[in-house]
Specification:
A hairpin with a 3-residue loop joins strand 5 (about 110-120) and strand 6. The protein is built from five helices and seven strands; from the N terminus they run E-H-E-H-E-H-E-E-E-H-H-E. The protein is about 35% helix and about 20% strand.
């Protein structure tokens, strides 16, 4: 069961490892990916998502699970590595990505972490959108319950860091 208190007004945030777990990140990535498929899937089948992280020691593991969830949902994921949030927003806009996710807790204590979500043009995915995402996860918490393709079969959807978008879905 995901902790509903991590879904805030503008982001998802909590204590890493207890409130914001790797399993929660998998669920969040999958649910957000599903939202993106519903929103942009008619234009192209695999929405593109830039995923970055801050320098916290637990951010890399949380990023990996978010990316896994996105891929299982059917998204094409671009790992933009360790970068500040504004670079993620810039990447979404300049590279015409469908969305972005940034693993960061900003100025909060080192034991915390969080996720900022955006859609096209770096439009914040916040407020009621985050609460709807929470309800979606509570209704079907595990990606496995939705019978998605396996992660290993979809691993080629992760673009390596720094890859140019010349052969992507909309390339």
């Amino acid at each position: 069961m995901i902790d509903p208190r991590i879904f805030r007004a503008y982001d998802i945030r909590g204590v890493a490892g207890t409130q914001l777990t790797e399993e929660a990140c998998l669920q969040i990535g999958f649910a957000f990916g599903t939202v993106l498929i519903e929103k942009y899937g008619k234009e192209h089948p695999s929405p593109t998502v830039a995923v970055g992280r801050d320098a916290r020691t637990h951010s890399l593991a949380l990023q990996a699970e978010v990316m896994k969830g996105l891929i299982v949902a059917g998204c094409e994921v671009f790992d933009i590595g360790q970068t500040p949030s504004p670079v993620n927003y810039f990447t979404i806009c300049t590279q015409k990505f469908d969305a972005g996710m940034q693993i960061t807790a900003s100025h909060n204590p080192k034991e915390d972490n969080g996720i900022k979500l955006c859609t096209r043009d770096a439009d914040a995915f916040s407020g009621e959108d985050l609460q709807e995402l929470r309800r979606r996860i509570e209704a079907s918490p595990s990606p496995e319950k939705n019978s998605p393709p396996s992660f290993s079969a979809s691993a080629e959807r992760v673009a390596p860091q720094g890859r140019e978008r010349t052969g992507g879905v909309r390339g």
